[in-house]
Specification:
The complex is a heterodimer of chains A (about 190) and B (about 450).
Chain A lengths: L2 H32 L8 H9 L3 H18 L4 H31 L3 H21 L1 H6 L3 E2 L6 E2 L1 H5 L2 H21 L10
Antiparallel strand pairs in A: 1-2
Chain B lengths: L2 H40 L2 H35 L1 H10 L2 H22 L6 H30 L5 E3 L2 E3 L3 H5 L4 H30 L5 H38 L1 H8 L10 E3 L2 E3 L4 E3 L2 E3 L2 H7 L22 H27 L8 H27 L4 E3 L3 E2 H4 L6 H29 L2 H9 L11
Antiparallel strand pairs in B: 1-2, 3-6, 4-5, 7-8
Helix pairs in contact in B: 1-2, 1-5, 1-7, 1-12, 1-14, 2-3, 2-14, 2-15, 4-5, 5-7, 7-8, 7-12, 8-9, 8-11, 11-12
Classes of the chains: A mainly alpha (about 190), B mainly alpha (about 450).
Amino acid sequence: MSDALLAITLVWGFIFLYAIMASMDFGAGFWAMTYIKKEETNATKIANSYLSPTWEVTNTFVVGLVIAIYSLFPGAVFPIGVALIVPASLILVLLCIRSAFLVFSHSVDKYEKALTYISGVTGLIIPGLLISVLPITHLGFVEGMRGNEELNLSKLFTSPNEYAFVGFGIMSTLFYHLCSCPITQNKPMK
Amino acid sequence: MDHIQMARAMFGTNMAVHIIFATIGVGLPMMMLAAELMYQRTKDLQYVVMAKRWTKTLGVLLGVGIPTGTIAGVQLSLLWPGFMEVIGRVMALPFQIEIYAFMVEALFMSIYVYAAEKIKPWARIVSLFFVAFGAMASAVLISNVHAFEGTPAGFRFENGEIVDVDPWAAFFNPSFLVTAGHTALTAYTTGAFVVAAVAAYKMLKNKYGTAEFNFHQKALRLSIVLGLVFSFLTALNGHATTQHLYREQPEKLAAAEGLFETQDHAGLTLFGYTDREAQEVKYGIEFPWLLSFLSGNSFDTVVTGLNDFPEEYWPPLYVHILFNAMVIIGSGLIALALFALVWNKWLKKETYPKWVLWLFVASGPLSVISIECGWIFACTGRQPWTIYRMLTTEDSVTSYENLGFLFTMFIIVYIILCVSVVFTLLYYFKRHSVMDDIYKAEQKDVRLFDSNS
């Protein structure tokens, strides 16, 4: 295996693990929101219990992924950084609000409803934005010469390709969570 | 604002918010460890209650500290891709090790919080030690990247290409120990004085002699002792840091002191502002010969002035004010803690006068301001470089031009977070009073830490 292949395997390994943990997290948020009105179901509780313990580790994986990319592919930092600055900033802001309110809602019961909506909505948008990395880097939305790359945002957001990816990201997150949830449903909840 | 300034303001805003939570996030575990150790020594349950309440506070603060840290880590690559390209080739080690330090902290934190009542006291202290160690190690490793920016080592540029990379030489760059030590010591100092501020405020709000008053007085006494130790160590380390500046980044020292002419027997000026036209510090108090002595331990030490450097290498001259604010607050903290200790231990006074308590209330916010001043001084004082004499800020910044929208978005989020974190802490501690916790602690079968999850 060449060095580059080894390195990219490591990066994709990171992405693979992150995808599993993050889907649990994001899917849980959405399903908790849809069940908020039906008090008798246990689904909100089940979904909420997935939200808490993993968020620190999931957040660390985001940083770990970025570190892996710039220490293994330093030459790619500049073009990737410029192309992804808008979507990545949006993801950061949403993740930040989501994790913060997750923590706050443990201390302030009033926040629980707000948290359900925040984690529900961000649980949909973040996977959509995360998967947009693929169309952005591979479908020619980055324009300009080397050293002056720029992401053409209007072209991106008017392209049906982008929405196909976003829809795929969201659907797979929700589907994955739905499949993985029943396995653990028998565990006692607090 | 031009493009570079916008990018710097954006990253600076993130760091200014993050550093408050990161600093207290390093300082508080040390205080928690101290309280647990005091409990082992005195068997006074109130120390367990203290540790529990600080753990809760830490948990809430990490809710902002970790996400803003994530933002900082990713934003480095988004805003400064030119810089991170060099870091990726030369100085990736601290970031890679930091991930593990963070994991250690998170792991032992969950052991300490979720298993507190199921494990033996020594195991609790060990897990708390690793929480404190992990937090401190993270701070030390990330500060090391900052140290490297000021005193780069382990690589060189040849025709624009990076050659002779030695990651460990970069890791152990000349100012690693003093800079990282400064971050750790000031974080402990801040942790102690932030606790002191809350305790003093609560003492002012409660009647002398009540159980709640006594509880907070215990917390204040503990933080005074630790605050004194760490602020004094900070001063010693700060002196070493300044001597490093004298040797390794002389224009930064010259700007900090507002020194234009190279001279021996150089004076140290407190207060005032640096006037670029008049080439002097206006409205300051000068202590003759002191700067030479502090820089090289002798009055004959020649200190290089700004005029010996091309003007485009000068850092912004307002760093004099930031440097002063940092040093003056730091010295004030030592004096305050020392006075309170003498008052209590040698003059044998039962409690502290009101004005001393008010000074302690101010000491918490002031120590945070001092941290902010120190960081802004350290980073603007390095301008126009991101890596001193190697890489300019201009070559580091992203080519993406429309930062205004993103900047506004981040500012709104930080405001929401800062307001809601204060609200969360006030709300929680209003409903979980000290007396409730002390009562719970005294009942053998009630689990004190349960409300921590």
